[in-house]
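ARCHIVE CARD
CATEGORY: sequence design from structure
SOURCE FIELD: tokenized fold
FIELD CONTENT:
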């Protein structure tokens, strides 16, 4: 009897939802007896708008080996995520039956489940799907399994922090990146406009606290230099493929490499009153694209709405550092008042 080892391949931080066993060495794995075995890999692609949760995984063989290792139950795949499974045996009785629960948007079980058998037979890698709950479609192609919403379904995602937003800009960017990276996906970005704007203020020096009884000078460090990265919200840098899509739509000439632009080289000085905290801040000139990623996966569509800033080199509306100050916390002021009489 050949041993079986099922492992979950290392995924990105956005994909990995729970601790997983270490991946098998490339080209094979080692069972409890120390003998090597060939591996067979499977990819589970969640193209649906639902979250899938692994609730059970077991050998379907009549005589499973004592060194059997299975995936941790409770592991989740959100929409756009994928998981990698490796089986280390070519023996039919070492197939693994996995059971998946379908979760609502708030991660509560819907009551719907389906079974997926990961099978290895000689050099053939294939999957068998049990009863699939209404509202989902599961397709298998060799070692790849695709879970989709019903045909002609459109899933709409609004990003940001305002009313109606369903996820943050950063999470929306990651979702678009994952979906557009899938083999067979078709992506485009449609912009509703590209006005000249400036970013929210960014601190470039400070903060400085004046806990003395006298006025002090707050100096902006000589040749202070900061950069602005093409961003979705704060500091999430765009994937090159997505940047190209945006450039094609909005005619921004940054290309796929100009994601950083040196924007500030400034010096300055200002007076900081006793009991005040001060800092230097700057805004950056940008093109602000309000648009939508349309991502076609099989017979389903994702629409991810977001606002994207890209550098506007040579913009004249800002790029000058400005001082700001406010009152220090109450406790510090009380101590300052006592020491200054």
């Amino acid at each position: 009897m050949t041993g079986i080892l099922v492992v979950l391949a290392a995924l990105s931080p956005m994909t990995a939802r729970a601790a997983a066993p270490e991946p098998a060495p490339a080209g094979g794995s080692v069972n409890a007896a120390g003998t090597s075995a060939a591996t067979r890999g499977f990819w589970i692609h969640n193209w649906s708008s639902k979250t899938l949760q692994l609730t059970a995984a077991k050998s379907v063989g009549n005589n499973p080996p004592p060194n059997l290792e299975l995936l941790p139950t409770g592991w989740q795949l959100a929409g756009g995520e994928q998981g990698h499974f490796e089986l280390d045996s070519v023996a039919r009785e070492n197939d693994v039956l996995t059971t998946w629960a379908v979760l609502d948007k708030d991660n509560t079980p819907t009551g719907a489940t389906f079974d997926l058998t990961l099978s290895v037979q000689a050099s053939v890698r294939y999957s068998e799907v049990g009863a699939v709950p209404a509202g989902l479609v599961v397709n298998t192609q060799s070692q790849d399994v695709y879970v989709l919403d019903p045909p002609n379904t459109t899933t709409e995602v609004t990003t940001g922090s305002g009313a109606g937003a369903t996820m943050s800009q950063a999470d929306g960017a990651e979702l678009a990146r994952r979906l557009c990276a899938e083999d067979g996906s078709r992506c485009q970005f449609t912009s509703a406009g590209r006005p000249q704007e400036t970013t929210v203020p960014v601190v470039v020096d400070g903060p400085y606290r004046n806990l003395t009884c006298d006025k002090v000078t707050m100096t902006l460090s000589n040749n202070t230099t900061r950069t602005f990265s093409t961003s979705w919200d704060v500091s999430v840098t765009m994937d090159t493929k997505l940047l190209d899509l945006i450039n094609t739509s909005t005619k921004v000439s940054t290309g796929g490499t100009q994601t950083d632009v040196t924007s500030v080289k400034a010096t300055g000085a200002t007076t900081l009153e006793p009991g005040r905290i001060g800092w230097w801040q700057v805004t950056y000139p940008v093109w602000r694209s309000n648009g939508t990623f349309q991502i076609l996966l099989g017979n389903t569509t994702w629409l991810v709405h977001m606002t994207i800033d890209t550098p506007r080199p040579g913009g004249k509306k800002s790029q000058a550092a400005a001082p700001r100050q406010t009152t220090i916390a109450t406790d510090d002021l009380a101590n300052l008042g006592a020491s200054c009489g």
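CARD ANNOTATION: Residues 92 and 194 are 58 Å apart (CA to CA). Confidence is low (pLDDT under 50) at residues 1-36, 229-238, 248-263.
SHELF: design records, drawer C
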